[in-house]
Amino acid sequence: MNELIFQTLKKTDRKYYKDEYICRINKIIELIELHPNLAHDQEKLTRLCYFSPRHFHRIFKAFIGISLSDFAEKIVLENAAHLLIEQPQKNISLISEECGFENTSLFTKQFKAQFSESPTVWRKKTRSKHRRDKIQNDGQDDQTIIHDHNPKIHLPVYASIPKLNIWPKTSLSPLHNFCIEEFEPQNMVALQYNGSYEDINTSHQKIEVLCQLLDSANLFNNLNPEFLHIYHHNPDIIPPDQQTSSICLKAFSEELKHGGLEPLKLDGGTYAVGKFQLKTQDYAKAWNTLCGVWLPESGYQPDDRPCFELYPHNPCLNDSGPHPVKLCIPVKPL
Prior knowledge:
alpha+beta, Arc Repressor Mutant, subunit A, Multidrug-efflux Transporter 1 Regulator Bmrr, Chain A, 2 domains, ten-stranded antiparallel beta sheet, elongated
């Protein structure tokens, strides 16, 4: 593996690359605001913004703070809220249908989760407030008053780089530990399982299984093992219980073709690497820092290969404290 330490770019160059990322994300925002149903057409969206389909969700969420599907849902609920106020005689079930909900029950549940009240109660209270305000603000037109007092969901018109570079003193300063690495193709053995990518504890448990297999084969001290967690799917498309991961051992031995392990080959190539000291609860923030802070200013964009975490030591040995980990995302020049 050849490591190329990332050379800091000029400020003007970083801004140029960052603006390119922002421009691409804004195209998606503007399209979803007009056509929320297109949130499910990831192929079209990734063609529009030129990001890898596999990693588009990470970039979008790192910028906006929520997933693409959650963003689209907020847009739909905002549209529904406008219809509830602007068309007070229209039945809620019709508004639900117009906004694309399968049934009124689902619409009511999601609306209440967002606005803390059912559509019926929210409409009644907001219309009543509208009438009171109209009396107090005689002379303003109805649409101005509705707009001023409608508790809209405030969504960004333009994306911006999130402030994710504030880390506790117990962690390495991540922005000082980014680089580009060239990985050679690597033969490994892997233990595959299905489960949410956010469940870091389960992945650590699978690493423990690999350690037990190494120990039983008397190989633990000989191999000086490194472990990888490879993510195979786009979690915006695949449900959490069907998301496939591979917990891999960066060594190949005939003695390890047992115990449910399968041979797996890591694709070689260029990867952006963030070096961190992480506690279990910090993984999501670390990925957001890599994808939302450093990568947009690096001159690189994600390539369509799986990303992975590399553990130079067994992270289970220090579950309560931070442990070293490399976050690796495949890239190509912007």
